[in-house]
């Protein structure tokens, strides 16, 4: 029987820690210690979420593939799998990230879905470990949008695995607390500069920068926010969020929960 720790990719976590922590200490966007507020809760997310997410994601993607078989012609996966692997990886990344963009927007605009996604946005000090601080249902929704879309189209296993690696690593990279920038590429690719604005609690930054890998989706659909000579000054949400792991898992099911902080901004500004 697999142990709980087997469900956590310890090698990947160690690699992220070895690379990200020195960068955050030497070239931080916001200077602070290695352990941020709520780090004990982060450990619970790192150790426990894997089980919930893997089960939920497997069931969800299997259901999507089964349902899609009824209306997607066999010629579609046959055509896709006939393409060279490098082209499949590029196509899978484009399609998966496009679907992820819209799923992410839905998590912000739908009050019910926001109950789960707000757990991730409640983090008040952003760093690489914040990528793992998310409700399992939130994780399943985003992962299913990304992986389900390429699975139902019939991309080869190798292409899906390659996209999964890109998606997983970029999900961590964009949360890193660093002032390192990628110049003009920020309009096309995700980066800490780009994603930190997504987490900002400043009113003009709310409901912006939804993309994960390809920031151009936000440029194309009018949701990009990348001001010059300015960095986010505050993160988190307006409403109360309990600190413990179990309390945060329960929070979305409580009668009174946080709704998107951006809702008020949408009403007044648009």
General description of the model:
There is one protein chain. The chain has one domain (4-269). The chain is 56% helix and 0% strand. The protein has helices at residues 10-26, 39-68, 75-81, 85-109, 111-121, 136-152, 157-173, 192-199, 216-220, 245-250, 262-269. Helix 2 runs parallel beside helix 6 (136-152) and helix 4 (85-109) packs across helix 7.
What's the β-strand tally?
A: 0
How would you sum up the major sheet?
Answer: none
Mean pLDDT: 87
Approximate strand percentage: under 5%
From the alpha-carbon coordinates, what is the Rg to the nearest angstrom? 19 Å
Principal-axes shape call: globular
- In whole angstroms, how far apart are the ends? 54 Å
Taken together, the total number of domains comes to 1
Q: Helix count, per DSSP? A: 11
Give a brief outline of the structure:
The protein has one domain. The chain is 56% helix and 0% strand.
Q: Topology of this structure?
A:
Layout: H1 10-26, H2 39-68, H3 75-81, H4 85-109, H5 111-121, H6 136-152, H7 157-173, H8 192-199, H9 216-220, H10 245-250, H11 262-269
Helix pairs in contact: 2-6, 4-5, 4-6, 4-7, 6-7
